[in-house]
Amino acid sequence: MNRCLISEVEVKGFIERCMTAVGTKQHHARSLAEVLVEGDHRGHYSHGLNRMDMYVKDIQTGICAKDGEPVVEKESEATALVDGKNLLGPVVGNFCMNLAIKKANDVGIGWVVAHNSNHYGIAGYYAMQALKENMIGMSFTNTSPLVVPTRAKECTLGTNPISVAAPAKDGDSFVLDMATSAVAIGKVELHERRGDPIPEGWGCDPLGKITTDPKRVLTGGGLVPVGGSEATGGYKGYGLGMMVEVFCGILAGAQYSKYIRTWKVTDRVANLGQCFVAINPENFAPGFSDRMSDLLSIHRNLNPADLDTPVLAAGDPERMNMKKCEDMGGIPYHINVVKYMNECAKKIGVNPLLPCDKIVSG
């Protein structure tokens, strides 16, 4: 499989040019470019450059606002309710996470929720911002309904991700960033395009029965929660997905559950709910980062069941992907994604396009 090797700087510049070409403010375009490229850098290609055309379309159609800034509607020393003003998700996310960190610096914890937001990229991007201040960070968002609850037949919950980042010594960290569905919808779409069956426990058919046919999942069925079927603990993933909805849609007074617009149908504003938390360990027992490093070491040093696959902690696969990018001198993008995004850019008069002169296999 041929891939184009492109530097982070080039991809960020390209995304910024595309977004400003349709009227996005420069600093808003930069916020989006940074979160999308961080997604790719960490190996989450489904949430990076691959999604840029969706954001361009949202601004072009006016379904997502390009003017204004988020506004604090209500706050206490440790909490805030923010109106995202229907701006790009990363603009809202950065505003809220910065506010949560400021509050945690002042009083030990900051809990900020937003309504009127949009798709914000990888949840981990916001949780990890707290690591720079040696704090624990958490981030959650609701999404369009794509998940069928345990025992049900219709989609009423989003993939509703959870991210928790905790600092350890010497720049090390625990970074959990997971959907509460068994997989992302993009993985099912990929299997369908290839004509491959999906593993059992990813999705169900329109009757709510677990299926390995991606077409059945995408046409009237849905994803299943983490854990798969009821017999294998899917109800726990269902509970976690609903917990995210409590923190996001319900607490923030945003859209929630089946009231959120259908995925990829932009006939009305998204009004997503999002939640951002920062916790200062200094307000608790001393020695947090030492214990955190020990906890990570205990697990990384376990004897693996298979010698070829060492035991990892949350965030390690992403770190390995980032190191691979550093060693290669750029991010390896699938050549089709680069071509498609360059076509999108040409339509809006953007120049220069993404370079594709460095071809690597992999």
UniProtKB/TrEMBL annotation:
<keyword id="KW-0560">Oxidoreductase</keyword>
<protein>
    <recommendedName>
        <fullName>Malate dehydrogenase</fullName>
    </recommendedName>
</protein>
<dbReference type="InterPro" id="IPR043143">
    <property type="entry name" value="Mal/L-sulf/L-lact_DH-like_NADP"/>
</dbReference>
<dbReference type="InterPro" id="IPR036111">
    <property type="entry name" value="Mal/L-sulfo/L-lacto_DH-like_sf"/>
</dbReference>
<dbReference type="InterPro" id="IPR043144">
    <property type="entry name" value="Mal/L-sulf/L-lact_DH-like_ah"/>
</dbReference>
<dbReference type="InterPro" id="IPR003767">
    <property type="entry name" value="Malate/L-lactate_DH-like"/>
</dbReference>
<dbReference type="Pfam" id="PF02615">
    <property type="entry name" value="Ldh_2"/>
</dbReference>
<comment type="similarity">
    <text>Belongs to the LDH2/MDH2 oxidoreductase family.</text>
</comment>
<dbReference type="GO" id="GO:0016491">
    <property type="term" value="F:oxidoreductase activity"/>
</dbReference>
